[in-house]
Amino acid sequence: MFRQVQDRMQWRADLLFAGRYEDLSREYLYPLAVYLEDRLMVLHTPAMLMAAATHLRDALVSRNVTCSRFSLSAVELPRDKRFRVWGTWQDMAANPAHTRRSTAVYYMRETDDGYQSEMLHFPQLGTTEMFDFNPPQQMIA
Predict the structure, then answer these.
(1) Cα 91 to Cα 85: distance, rounded to the nearest angstrom
(2) Are 84 and 108 contacting, i.e. CB atoms less than 8 angstroms apart?
(3) Is the pLDDT at 51 greater than 70, yes or no?
(4) Helix (H/G/I), strand (E/B), else coil: 91
């Protein structure tokens, strides 16, 4: 299970950098609560997640980040098909000064579509540009 989760998280980063936002949006359950340090952002729909992913990718590209690497620290034993995942994202930039690190806790659920996230918490957020994300009003349910 550890390797499957590690691979799944890295695949999500690859989807983000490839601009495959619709595929990425299928990795989550909605509404999706996302805690960015002490701030809460709720993504009600896949369209909202795709807008947030676009914002994130644009911020990463503007810092010349070429990829993000996920390092899995721990996976909780599932209970009722739910479990938590702890890990670290390292944004790899051409300029080492633009390389940043975020710690993450993913609240996951095993579904017919595989492991999906139902809540995210980033206790330490390296990509602080996400604080500036404001979804268009028509996306808010």
Answers:
(1) 19
(2) yes
(3) yes
(4) strand
78-127 pLDDT, tens digit each? 999 999 999 999 999 988 888 899 999 999 999 999 999 999 999 999 98
Instruction: Give, in order, the Cα–Cα distances in Å from 68 to each of 31, 50, 82.
Output: 25, 18, 25
Token pair listed for 68: 């993000």
**Lookup result for tokens 């998280």:** 9
Cα-flanking dihedrals φ and ψ of residue 19, to 5°? 75, 25
- In this structure, the chain runs to a length of 141
CA–CA separation, 21 vs 52, rounded Å? 9
Tokens of 90: 């390292």
Sheet containing 65-75: which strands, arranged edge to edge?
Answer: 39-43, 28-36, 114-124, 100-111, 82-93, 65-75
